[in-house]
Design brief:
This protein is mainly α. It has one domain. It has 13 helices and no strands. It binds iron/sulfur cluster (SF4).
């Protein structure tokens, strides 16, 4: 049905449909299910996302390694103090993105979107867009289908693996999926969604993967916090009418080439970036000696 963003845009125009509608039809057809079946499945995904995005806001969730945790509560408390510089939406979005990252690091249940490391960005984006726009759960389910199309295109034509393409492929694609989804929620056109998806990926092109101690914790939760902000900024740019000079298909291709040109040290091996700083090496030493507090 489609392999490129170009095909999706053409289908949307020909059939006068949203990206989410095209995605639902394709998923049902491909798996020989009814539209209701695939929508019901996505409803369960949404429930998992709601839980992971909120469970770390009130009481601290500490990671399995005990290296990170409790930061979603801090951001939420800061938000409630009314002293934040960047405002309620941004701080709530960061808190909820970090909540899911903490659930992941504590071996809880999350929905990989597109990966576990980047799983905080999409739930927080759609849930905070819902707050702002007054959307329904049905709108959220549709938004997840739109996001899934971006993730599918990235998987088919590039990569969503930090080991293959760096964090641009994980948190970058997650922000791209989210930006496209929230643009559709806000009433933007399919072209607006793809413009937003392009901006989000361009904004972090070249972002390396350098997890401290080789664990999906730090800088991962920070990049989930900045990833959700990237999604909102990119969505607003597109909704304001800013056009992407580079089509999404070409942005994906560029991201993939950049990923392939990254040295192995910067692709999830913990042999470069912040993972090899003295502080990170000490954290890793304590963790592997079993003396992490
Ligand atoms: S730094 Fe690496 S492990 Fe962490 S979220 Fe990014 S790609 Fe995933």
């Amino acid at each position: 049905m489609y392999n490129k963003a170009f095909d999706v845009i053409k289908l949307c125009e020909q059939e006068n449909k949203k990206i989410s509608e095209i995605a639902i039809l394709k998923e049902a057809k491909m798996r020989n299910l009814t539209e209701k079946d695939v929508i019901d499945e996505m409803k369960s995904v949404l429930e998992i996302m709601k839980k992971s995005a909120t469970s770390g806001l009130e009481s601290p969730i500490i990671s399995h390694s005990k290296i990170t945790g409790g930061n979603a509560v801090k951001i939420n408390n800061y938000l409630n103090s009314n002293k934040s510089l960047s405002g309620d939406l941004i701080n709530k979005a960061m808190a909820m993105a970090v909540s899911t990252s903490e659930v992941n690091a504590s071996m809880g249940v999350i929905c990989a979107a597109p990966t576990a490391g980047a799983s905080g960005i999409l739930p927080s984006s759609i849930l905070n867009a819902k707050e702002k726009l007054g959307s329904s759960d049905e709108d959220l389910v549709n938004a997840l289908f739109t996001a899934a199309v971006i993730g599918e295109l990235a998987t088919k034509n590039a990569t969503v693996s930090g080991a293959e393409g760096g964090c641009q492929a994980e948190c970058g694609v997650a922000a791209s999926m989210s930006a496209a989804a929230i643009v559709e929620m806000a009433g933007g056109s399919p072209i607006d969604s793809f413009n937003a998806a392009s901006f989000a990926l361009i904004n972090v092109m070249g972002l390396i993967c350098d997890p401290v101690a080789g664990l999906v914790e730090y800088p991962c939760f920070l990049r989930n916090a900045s990833g959700v902000v990237n999604a909102f900024v990119s969505a607003d740019l597109a909704l304001a009418g800013v056009q992407s000079l580079i089509p999404f298909d070409e942005v994906l291709e560029a991201m993939y080439k950049v990923g392939k040109s990254l040295p192995e040290t910067l692709r999830e091996t913990a042999l470069g970036g912040i993972a090899t700083t003295p502080a990170a090496k000490e954290i890793a030493r304590r963790f592997y000696n079993g003396t992490t507090e």
